[in-house]
Design goal:
This protein is of the alpha/beta class and 267 residues long. The protein is built from nine helices and twelve strands. The strands form three sheets. It has a six-stranded mixed sheet. Mean pLDDT is 83; it is low at 251-264.
């Protein structure tokens, strides 16, 4: 069941389009253009990550879907592309910013995405997901969103994934060198995650200790409370891309004067 769909992208598109008039380095321009491409719903069409998730989970009462969740807690902010909550109130966080890009993951964990000509370094989505998990866990605890069991509030169980299109090429190191198993294609949803509940049920039935599953209305209420925390105007792309002090470009060229360091904001 869909609890929250994507927020309108008009404001974000306008922000990003304005940023392209700044005196940007090639790296920053690539990141902004990549974000614009991600926000364009006509670019991915029926193959967007939201489409895959909705197609397989929308009619299932055992899953609640929250798209495009912008939250903050304890002074930290995070943007979660897709959040799935199952009937055991396990939370599965999906980042899809690199959905359509071929990816190369180096042995030291560095992420590179292909821009059509060469590979460009980007912030590691695996590391960014760890930040998202922390903000989400803090928000859940701070607002007491999860129900209590025997008088004790449930401790959130949050897993995270980087979602890519099934046709995307992912070059990765051996798992023993650097574990990238949470970088998954969209069809992972059907092959693995959506079958997880039944496998769990069968396993626990064998040992006669079935974990407590919550009713669909409880799942819906928990997801709705979390979706109500969404702050649609939270994103400031100037701050995200560390461009507060830049002025519009004087000429057609770029000087690359802006710093390419990561900012304290997880989009």
């Amino acid at each position: 069941m869909i609890i929250k769909d994507r927020d309108p992208a008009k404001n974000a598109v306008e922000q990003l389009t304005d940023l392209l008039s700044l005196d940007l380095s090639a790296a920053k321009k690539f990141l902004i253009e990549r974000e614009l491409k991600r926000l364009n719903p006509q670019k991915n069409g029926a193959h967007s990550p939201a489409h895959f998730i909705n197609f397989y989970c929308e009619e299932c009462p055992d899953w609640a879907i929250i798209h495009d969740l912008k939250i903050e807690s304890n002074g930290f902010a995070a943007h979660i592309d897709h959040l799935l909550i199952n009937k055991y109130l396990d939370l599965h966080l999906f980042e899809s910013r690199n959905y359509n890009d071929d990816i190369k993951i180096k042995a030291d964990g560095e992420f590179l995405v292909f821009d059509g000509r060469q590979y460009q370094a980007v912030n590691s989505p695996l590391e960014e997901n760890e930040k998202r998990i922390q903000v989400l866990a803090d928000l859940l605890a701070e607002n007491k969103i999860l129900p209590k069991k025997m008088g004790i509030a449930l401790k959130p169980r949050i897993s995270s994934y980087v979602l890519v299109h099934p046709a995307v090429n992912v070059i990765r190191p051996p798992e023993a060198v650097y574990d990238t198993s949470s970088v998954v294609s969209a069809d992972y949803l059907t092959k693995t995650l959506l079958r997880q509940l039944e496998r769990l049920k069968k396993t626990f039935l064998r040992i006669k200790r079935l974990p407590k599953a919550f009713k669909a209305d409880t799942l819906a209420k928990v997801a709705a409370r979390l979706a109500a925390m969404n702050k649609p105007n939270l994103i400031d792309y100037r701050r995200i891309f560390c461009l507060e002090d830049l002025k519009p470009a004087a000429g057609s060229g770029t000087t690359g004067s802006d710093a390419d360091a990561a900012c304290d904001y997880t989009i």
